[in-house]
């Protein structure tokens, strides 16, 4: 097959599989690495890419309406976990799906999938940075605008997607909300391996309780993997997701076809003409208080 034909098949498979379940035509190293994505995926060299370095003092405080989370507290009846060669992804195969509306969003968005980013060691792994600091990992929960049929259709529409992002930090205790999930990770070590769950922990268990999801930064950006579509409203919560060292290590034990999947974070991209907003609605704390907590926690655990 010629390179052109391979590319065509890849794109086609990607569309079918909601991005990269099968096709391994991008990676994080060498000629498959982020610096080369633009050659095959033009949008990856766009002007509104993600992730970014959020400069806390430059964010504009704005009072958005409250975020409204639906079905975040209920156990997920049927979940599907897959190692797609780039990350471990969880989809939900039962109804009703969790949804989100409010905040910076116009309309209601439905859960599509969630996945994680991590690094070779605890000093790297998050995609987003806060004042140039990186963290050991980041969780992304991807939603699509319900005006559209599905993730694929919304992925071509302006503001068609939103991603809820949580920075992962190291805690001395295991995060008990991840007991079942971690058990599932052991079954998806190899690329394309998958497993199903009945009654997986709720999205609130896998993130933070609702009361801890009101402070966030938001900006317009892109998917952080090819095709890097600039259709994403990012919502980056300031309250981090704690996990133990062992729990973060479990992600590093996954494999892609090319070997151990030790890291899967994209470097930060220029902000260019964009504005980052900080949601200060019902804020009882100064703007950067929680980010300061993040940084202090990170210092205590010596990850800088
Ligand atoms: C962690 O990994 C990064 C990326 O490979 C590397 O630059 C850094 O030196 C490593 N840090 C430690 C403490 O091993
Ligand atoms: C899930 O894994 C099984 C093998 O364990 C495989 O036959 C099946 O095709 C996989 N499903 C997906 C969607 O990758
Ligand atoms: Zn992601």
From TrEMBL:
NADP as UniProt keyword: no
Gene3D superfamilies: Alpha carbonic anhydrase (3.10.200.10)
InterPro entries: CA_dom (IPR001148), CA_dom_sf (IPR036398), Carbonic_anhydrase_a-class (IPR023561)
Biological classification of the source: Eukaryota, Metazoa, Ecdysozoa, Arthropoda, Hexapoda
UniProt family annotation: Belongs to the alpha-carbonic anhydrase family.
GO MF annotation, one: carbonate dehydratase activity
Keywords: Glycoprotein, Metal-binding, Signal, Zinc
UniProt source species: Ceutorhynchus assimilis (cabbage seed weevil)
Sequence ranges assigned to domain Alpha-carbonic anhydrase in this UniProt record: 24-280
EC number from the UniProt entry: 4.2.1.1
A Pfam family annotated for this UniProt entry: Carb_anhydrase
Zinc among keywords: yes
GO cellular component, one term: cytoplasm
Protein name: carbonic anhydrase
Signal peptide: 1-23
EC supergroup of this enzyme: lyase
């Amino acid at each position: 097959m010629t390179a052109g034909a391979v590319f065509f098949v890849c794109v086609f498979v990607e569309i079918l599989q909601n991005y990269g379940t099968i096709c391994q035509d991008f990676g994080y190293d060498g000629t498959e690495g982020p610096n080369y994505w633009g050659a095959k995926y033009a949008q990856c060299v766009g002007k509104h890419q993600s992730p970014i370095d959020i400069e806390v003092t430059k964010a504009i405080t704005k009072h958005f309406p409250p975020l409204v989370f639906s079905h975040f507290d209920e156990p997920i009846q049927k979940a599907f976990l897959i190692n797609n060669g780039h990350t471990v992804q969880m989809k939900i195969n039962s109804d009703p799906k969790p949804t989100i509306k409010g905040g910076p969003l116009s309309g209601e968005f439905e859960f599509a999938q969630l996945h994680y980013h991590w690094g070779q060691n605890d000093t790297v792994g998050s995609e987003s940075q806060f004042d140039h600091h990186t963290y050991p990992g980041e969780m992304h929960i991807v939603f699509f605008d319900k005006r559209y049929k599905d993730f694929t259709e919304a992925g071509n529409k302006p503001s068609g997607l939103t991603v809820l992002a949580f920075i992962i930090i190291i805690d001395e205790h295991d995060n008990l909300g991840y007991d079942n999930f971690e058990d599932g990770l052991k079954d998806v070590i190899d690329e394309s391996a998958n497993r199903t769950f009945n009654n997986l922990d709720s999205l609130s268990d896998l993130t933070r309780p609702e009361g801890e999801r009101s402070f966030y930064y938001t900006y317009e950006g892109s998917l952080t993997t090819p095709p890097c579509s600039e259709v994403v409203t990012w919502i980056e919560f300031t309250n981090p997701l704690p996990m133990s060292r062992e729990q973060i290590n479990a992600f590093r034990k996954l494999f892609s076809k090319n070997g151990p999947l030790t890291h899967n974070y994209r470097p930060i991209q220029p902000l260019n003409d964009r504005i980052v907003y900080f949601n200060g609605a019902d804020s009882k704390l100064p703007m950067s208080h929680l980010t300061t907590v993040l940084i202090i926690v990170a210092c205590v655990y010596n990850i800088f």
